[in-house]
Design a protein that fits this description.
With about 250 residues, the chain is an alpha/beta fold. Helix content is about 35%, strand content about 25%. α6 links the parallel β8 and β9. The protein is globular, with a radius of gyration of 18 Å. The strands form two sheets. The protein has a six-stranded mixed sheet, with helices on both faces. The chain has a five-stranded antiparallel sheet with strand order 2-1-4-5-6.
């Protein structure tokens, strides 16, 4: 399989505080990697480094065979800009433009980033909104939607740019429990279609069911990684066992 994401010896400091301490992993085409672990372990920071919302302190990131940063040194501006199109990040708090309609939220990135015509952007946006069960909400504004509906719009927006890998940063953490299921169902459907994804999540049973592999992080390092059943149902590290003991529904 083709490698979509390659991370080698990634380090990220915030001032004197080292958040990520030299981690390495690969994600191949069609795989779903779930990253689990306690708050503050560096999970979300990894996604932000991949999507260039944070600059790395050291290490190497390659996406779709192109080098974003090598040994802490970034590629030229055009290469970095090109690489941004390879990944789509779905935030935990939706990050929709509140003054844009649902339709405009999904259309505008296509027009400004992909340079699509309005007609093509409209066609893609409506197709994705229909897929998300939101085509009847196209003219609504985010404030008129439930949290689950807003998150489905943000997924449609990310998919509209046709990324090679989707990054999910705790996609259900801002939702009421009864709305969590609809987002997990969307991600499961994408997984069944072999969409390459990296999912930071606190939903253990979900991670076990959809993932090709799971990484457990704590304190900025990878404590344990492997197949979902091995990590979730038969963890080897004591730290992993302690963390998972809080989740009785797995």
């Amino acid at each position: 399989m083709d490698k979509i994401v390659t991370i080698n010896n990634l380090v990220k400091n915030f001032g004197d505080l080292q958040i990520i301490k030299g981690i390495s992993f690969d994600v191949h085409k069609g795989e779903v990697l779930s990253i689990i672990g306690p708050s503050g372990s560096g999970k979300s920071t990894i996604l932000r480094c991949i999507s260039q919302l944070e600059t790395v302190t050291n290490g190497t990131i390659e996406i779709c065979g192109k080098t974003l940063v090598k040994d802490g040194k970034y590629s030229d501006k055009k290469t970095c800009s090109d690489i941004t199109l390879y990944s789509g990040l779905v935030f935990q708090n939706f990050n929709l433009f509140p003054h844009y309609s649902v339709l405009k939220n999904v259309m505008d990135p296509q027009i400004h980033v992909l340079k699509k015509s309005k007609e093509d952007a409209l066609e893609t946006a409506m197709s994705l909104l229909k897929r998300m069960g939101l085509d009847q909400k196209a003219k609504n504004y985010p404030c008129e939607l439930s949290g689950g509906q807003q998150q489905r719009v943000s997924i449609a927006r990310a998919l509209a740019l046709k990324p090679e890998v989707l990054l999910f940063d705790e996609p259900t953490s801002a939702l009421d429990p009864e709305l969590t299921g609809e987002i997990l169902a969307v991600i499961k459907e994408l997984a069944s279609e072999k969409m390459t994804m990296v999912v930071v999540t606190h939903e253990m049973a979900f991670a076990r069911d959809i993932s090709s592999k799971i990484i457990f992080m704590d304190g900025g390092v990878i404590v344990e990684q492997g197949k979902p059943d091995d990590v979730i149902n038969n963890p080897q590290a004591e730290r992993t066992k302690l963390f998972l003991s809080r989740f009785s529904n797995t």
